[in-house]
Every structure is written in structure tokens, then in C-alpha cells.
Amino acid sequence: MPIASVNPFSGETLRTFEPDDDARIEQKLACARGAFEKWRREPVAARAEVLRAAARILDDERDRFAALATSEMGKTIRAARDEVAKCALTCRYYADNAAAFLRKEPIDGDDQAVWIEPLGVVLAVMPWNFPYWQVIRFAAPALAAGNVGLLKHASNVPQCALALVDLFRRAGAPDGAFQALLVAGDRMERVIADPRVVAATLTGSEGAGRSVGGAAGKHLKKSVLELGGSDPFIVLASADLEHAVATAVKARVVNNGQSCIAAKRFIVLDAQYEAFAARFVEAMRALKVGDPARDDTDVGPLATPAIRDEVAKQVNDSVAKGARLLLGGERPGSGSFYPPTVLGDVPPDAPAAREEVFGPVAALFRVRDADAALAVANSSPFGLGASVWTRDRNEALWFARELETGSVFVNDMVASDPRFPFGGVKLSGYGRELGPFGLREFVNVKTVRMKQLPR
User: Fold this and answer.
1) Distance between CA atoms of 233 and 270, rounded to whole angstroms?
2) CATH fold of 231-410
């Protein structure tokens, strides 16, 4: 079956692609292995120059890359431009820091040291919601370390996948150093099993993580999984309410609500709840929903009608469980849009409390004190990020210690940054991307001890 690129705003089929057959997959695997033997021997400085060239292309052609993402998966054009700029920043970060991150570490003299070496061909299974950023945050450190990448992108963003392949080709990476597999997800276990593939990384759903992580474990391959999230946004008694509300709206509808680190559960103390809820509902009501290609649009369509239908079902089931519908909730008759929606007094067994809702839907929880807020926050099976709003330093430090998440942001929304490790705990996955930790996920940390050798 052809792979189709469909504009979620217009419903227009933009392009179709024939999937790679077995012969084409074999050709790409062989090419990747051959490229690794060359790329791993390039000086770190030469690999860094390829990343710098990629950053320049992204900056120079930001509008073109952004327009492609908007047309293919529906993100607003402003968000798409920001995504491309962040990709350029990350390429430069690893270009500037790779030598330090890969430097051998002497232990009792140069003849006893830890060497940091690349592993080989790394398979990356990536989602559609940030079609460039999710890939670059794997590709930039992997290529800097001397690995090569095989990208299996989401089937609804094939043009973005091929644009990234072309990016690294134009930046000077050797043939095969970064390729895209145009295949269905059910082909991944065979690719992971291939001895030329040494590791796998996935960003996606819990189900996809179990599939790829299970296949990697079965074949004794290293894996990193960044899965879903249901991030808490905790508003405590001393919070700056005006700042908290403004940020809460931004944190919920980032990327049309389709972000693993978007704030999804808003846990508010009694003292602030009524005021927060009233202001939050009005701010969500004021958002402009429409054509994602327009600069004044705040919320565009969801990526596919199936995603819209799943969000609608989660909202309806949550209301049936006892949640109060404070805003939105009406599914439009056509297109992939879902309106900004706010649910109040969400019970703990509702889908909005237990599941990841991948759309512009906020779930509000009223709690009596900080202990109750922590209990609700940690009750989720996910553990990706958390945002805490307080003016009390001791309270902030307590939450930072006690929250079961991969990151905690105080008086700010959760966001990724190339300088800081990114990942989760519990059902949000394992391993880390970004920062020095991300680069070292797919390397061989080799102990080398030499004695009685002449200088």
C-alpha cells in the first residue's frame, strides 16, 4: 500500500510513495554499514563541520522546512518555524561540544584510560508530532559520535523524512550516513534483528515502545525509549496566578496539544482553584482555531481524523465518569479539528486522569494541600515532566525531590533544551536524549589499559 502525505487542514493528498521492498531495505542496510566504516574514522572536527553546515541550511531555509511540516502534519506555521530554529541550535550545540563529550578520560596516566567510541548503525523510529525536532535530537548526537542513522519516520510525514535525508546529504555527510526507510511499522523487528543494526531508539506511544523495546531486548540490542506523558501542572497557594494561567494555556496547546511534554493535568490547591479555573477557561476560549498556515492561528487541526476521534472518545468517557465540561467538547463535523476543551473536577478513574490525551484538552483537579497535589501528580503511570508553581523555595525543592518524573520545572512550562538530558521514568520510557548523556547513549565506553610500552 502506498505511503500517503495528506494535508490535515485541507484533506488533500500531497504526494504518495511506494514503500521500500526487501531489496531496497537490504540496499540501505548495506549502505549504512559501509558508511559507518568511513564515518567513524572521520575526525570529530570533520563530523562537527557537517553539523554546522546542516545548521546553516536549516537557518537559511527555515520557512521552506516549516511550510512542509505545517502542510504535512498541521502544526501552526509559527510553531514550525520555531521547531526548525531549535533543530539548527541543536546541531550547533553538538558541533561545539562533541570533542569534549568524546574525549578519552585518563585514569592514572594516558596508558590507562576510558575511550568513547561509536557503536554503528542506529535505527530511529520517530513520531509525526515534531517531525524535524524528534529526529534531530537523535541524529545530531549520534552523527557527532560517529554513528550512522536509519530513520523509520511516521507514515504520515514521509516528505519531512526525506527532507532530513537531503539536509545531511547537502551538509556533507557521506552516502548512507543518514537514510530513511519508507516502510510500515510491522517491518521493524526484522530490521532490528539484522546484525548490522546495533541499537534502536524510539519516540512514540507506550504500545510502540513495547514493540521496539521488546524486539531490541530479544536481539540484545541497546535501546532508548521516550514514550507518552501526562504531565502535571501544579498550582500552589503562593503561585503568581496571572503568570501561571498564561503559561498553562501555552503549555496545554503547544503543537495543537499534541506533545508528550504538554501540560495535561492541572492540579490546583483549593485556595487558587476557582480563580484559576475561571481565568484559564476564558483564556482557552479566546484562542483562535483555524488554518495552521496563518500567522495568527493559535490552534490548528490534529494530525489525522483518527487522532481527533480518539480525543473525542476520551473526553466523552471522562464526562460519563463524572468530569464537568467547562469548555469545548463538541467535535466538528468535518476535518481533523478538535476545539480547546477544559474538564473540571476530573475523577481519578476517568481517561483524562489515567491516559495521555493527545489534543487541546485540559483536565483540572482540585486538591486540599501540597501533599494531596503530590499524590495526584504521582498517581499517573507516566513520568515524563512536571511544572510546579510556587514562590516558596523550600516547597519548590520538596516537589523537585518527590515528583516521579524525568524533569521538573518551577514557575515555567516543561520544555526540551539541547543542553539538558531529556527522558522519563515509569511508562514514559528509559534512557536519555540531549546533553552529554544523550550523546553517550549509543557509544562503547571502552576501558584501555596498557603496560610496558616504550614512549
Assistant:
1) 15
2) Aldehyde Dehydrogenase; Chain A, domain 2 (3.40.309)
